[in-house]
Amino acid sequence: MPLLTVNHLKKIYTTRFGGNQVQALSDVTFSVEEGEYVAIMGESGSGKTTLLNILASLDQPTSGSVILNNVELGSIPDRQLSAFRRENLGFVFQDFNLLDTFSLYDNIALPLVLSRRTPKEIQRRLLPLAQMLGIDALLKKYPYEVSGGQKQRAAVARALITDPQIVLADEPTGALDSKSTDSLLRIFEEINRMGQTIFMVTHSLKAASHANRVLFIKDGVVFHQLYKGAASNEEMYQHISDALTVLATGGKNGE
Amino acid sequence: MNKFFYPKLAITSMRKNKTMYFPYLIASALCIAIYYIMDSVRLMVIASGMEGRENVYHMLAQFNIVSGIVSLVILFYVNSFVIKRRKREFGLYAILGMEKRHISLMLCWEVLLLSLLSFAAGIACGILFSQLMFLLLLQILHIPAELTFILPVDSIGKTVVWFVIGFIILLIFDIISIWRTNAIQLLYSAKAGEREPKARWALALMGLLALGGGYYLALTAQTKADAITIFFPAVLLVAVGTYLLFISGSIVFLKLLKKNQRFYYKPSNFITVSGMLYRMKQNAVGLASICLLSTAVLVTLSSCLSLFCGGEDSIRLQFPREAMISCYLEEEEKQEQDADRFVTALEKQSEQYDVPMLNAVGLTTVNHSFHYQNGEFSTSGGGDSKTVYVSCYAQEDYNKIASTPLSLRPGQMTILSPSRERFPEEISINGTSYRTQTITDPEITEPGTDICFIFPTVDDLWELTNRIAAEFNDYRLVTYQYFFDVPEDVPHMEQFMESLWSHWDSEEDGAALCYSRTKADEQNRFYRIYGSLFFIGIFFVTVFLTATVLIIYYKQVTEGYDDHDRFQIMQKVGLSDREVKRAIQKQILTVFFLPLVTAVIHVFAALPILSKILMSLGLLDPFVFILCTLATISVFAVFYFIVYQLTAKTYYRIVKAKE
């Protein structure tokens, strides 16, 4: 039984005056096993963000279903949705989305505080995590006082602190320089090795080449997928690059 | 280029920013209208030929200067807010290739349009309402005068000149601020990171001391004279204290809350406390200003209202009859005969002018200040004692005008206490003890005195005078007051009363100095002064309220834009809609009701000192003042709440707006 199952997902946006309909997702089906590290690639407008928003239960699909650990997201009542999101999903965003009124410590603690954990428990869970991510010396600082890479590591800590079923990452390296990108990708690999399932949307070949499996999405359908298997990061990089070339130039013939 | 390009751009951008510009327009129109109304009412007062018009004219003129300056300050505040919010937009224009002079040109058009619109609206409203306001003034003043319709071109000119100068200064200010920043700065000006505020204990402590000192002064002022000298230092201390406490005290308090982990790491407190820290840092000055403005509104309105409501009473208490004549009697031995001779002379005079004096009564009074402490009154003394001004009567005289006569026996006396202060049953006056009874709703008061003593016999009164005379170089001041009614429409009443002011020969008539007043004159004078004050008070409150409402509104809008991003993030991280709303509400409520609550506390602390000042202005019954204050506070609170509700709607709309 896979951890995450996505069945025939379809999403149609209607413009405000009901005139034009835009089909963001036509028919997306895939599944993610526990402990997998999946990257999804595609051009702008291919439906990546829509897919992620639906997985994050921030948006509802027009038809189709998303099942996370035997729970269908569509069946969760609105009032419990936030709590469900908090307990089961971890988010890492391109622009970090840290709150500038909180210190890094408080930013990371936010999901636990919302779940009404005691200050002691928060501390017990937070400190080792911060140490692992190398930000334990920065916990008292505020977001505007630290670098982009450090901010993103704090955001990762916030995503991991609830022990989520799955971490959803939306272009996590998009706003980072190459050094910070490398270090973040190493961190992702590391937490994946420790058993954390990761689902990452990305543009970056380098980021995708670290994943176990890469899904390619185009015009609202999953078009192709690549397994890393025993390949090295560099070999994987080459495979993905080839696949993208085919995708961009050959269309359906290239399959 | 199309010559209408800039005006069009100006119109579009004002329309796009209507959340900012609409209140701006209303505020400037209102300020213009108020300025115009005051100026034209002033001219109408002169044109109407009413009695005592100079007084009213000058009072209105002084207020007009103040309101003009306050209006400009309000416009400056609003303008700086609007420009700050639009810096990003200007940055974008700059990136798109507009030079600074083009942006300045667009701003010129905007200010021109805004001022034209607000002049049109303001002066139109002004013309509509000035007549009505003049009617209201006449109503308040109780003075019959011609209702004159004039459309003073002078006032329009003056208003336009004053505000055109204001708008030009605003424009120069805007243009300078555009020229001093570059495009990239403009684009990112709103995004600069905010430092976490530091707890400044010393400042918080100073604020506490200043506020405490102000309160102490206000609460411990003993006499009316003290109250007047202490009032302004106390106001100053409270103002400084309020600013310091809002600025640093609030941060210190929040930091303490944050230190308490059990409290801080609870969902609602977590977001509220950290949010409030930043909010207080940005808004402390604005909130303190709202607090002080609200206090000013409450104090002004309740004082004017209670003077106006209670004044009628205090005049009635000074005049048991329609008219009064009073003179000083000098020689102790002859005082009784002097009084008789004075009355004889008066009667002669009244016959001459054909003014009959009906229901006449004569009262002998001794006015003197006493030191009072723990039931002991003494003419010498000092130390911690407080000074009270006392007028003394004999029972025999008092009973002539009282509806419930007294029957005091030797060793007994009565104290009339219009301020409702109660005195012990056993008191002593210069060493002589009396059993006393305090009457808190007296039928007569002497203007300028705090309480009245009523002695059983005239001899007690003489004894007291002699004692005082022995102490103060043979100085005796005994007043003889003669009250009487006159039939309505006596032709020579005025001349008669005037004639009494002069030509008294102390040998012949028994009196040296004499003055006369009628109840009607006194009422007219009262309404002219306090009516004008009340009228001005209404306008003052309107100006203050405008300022308060605008500050609240623009605060809400700024907060809204700041909070928009923050709450977007929280929702992504797992905060439900309901939790977001609750967290917002908690902060907004605290931020907006903190000034109101503080203002009410200030007003309550000021009650004792204010009621003393009002007493010296002629309001005798402190209950009237307390009632008026409570009424004012309730009305103001309701108004404040409505403003909050309306602005909160705008706030939620901004916070919840999707990207």
From TrEMBL, chain A:
Q: Which SUPFAM superfamilies match?
A: P-loop containing nucleoside triphosphate hydrolases
Organism lineage string:
Bacteria, Bacillati, Bacillota, Clostridia, Eubacteriales
Any Pfam family hit: ABC_tran
Any single GO CC term annotated in Swiss-Prot or TrEMBL for this entry: membrane protein complex
Give the record's keywords alphabetically: ATP-binding, Nucleotide-binding, Transport
Please state which protein family the record places this protein in.
Answer: Belongs to the ABC transporter superfamily.
Q: Which organism is it from?
A: Massiliimalia timonensis
InterPro entries (UniProt xref): AAA+_ATPase (IPR003593), ABC_transporter-like_ATP-bd (IPR003439), ABC_transporter-like_CS (IPR017871), MacB-like_ATP-bd (IPR017911), P-loop_NTPase (IPR027417)
Where does the record place the ABC transporter domain?
7-244
PANTHER family for the chain = ALPHA-D-RIBOSE 1-METHYLPHOSPHONATE 5-TRIPHOSPHATE SYNTHASE SUBUNIT PHNL, LIPOPROTEIN-RELEASING SYSTEM ATP-BINDING PROTEIN LOLD
**Alphabetized Gene3D superfamilies for the sequence:** P-loop containing nucleotide triphosphate hydrolases (3.40.50.300)
Coiled-coil intervals: none
| Gene Ontology molecular function: any one | ATP binding
Name the record gives this protein: ABC transporter ATP-binding protein
Automatic annotation (TrEMBL), chain B:
Intracellular or extracellular location(s): Cell membrane
Q: Which residues form the ABC3 transporter permease C-terminal domain?
A: 64-180, 538-643
Instruction: Supply the alphabetized keyword list.
Output: Cell membrane, Membrane, Transmembrane, Transmembrane helix, Transport
Organism domain of life: Bacteria
Q: Name one GO cellular component term.
A: plasma membrane
**GO terms for biological process?**
transmembrane transport
Give the primary localization class. Answer: membrane
Membrane-crossing ranges are 21-38, 58-78, 107-140, 160-179, 199-218, 230-257, 284-308, 529-554, 588-611, 623-643
Question: Which family does the record assign?
Answer: Belongs to the ABC-4 integral membrane protein family.
Question: Would you tell me the protein name for this molecule?
Answer: FtsX-like permease family protein
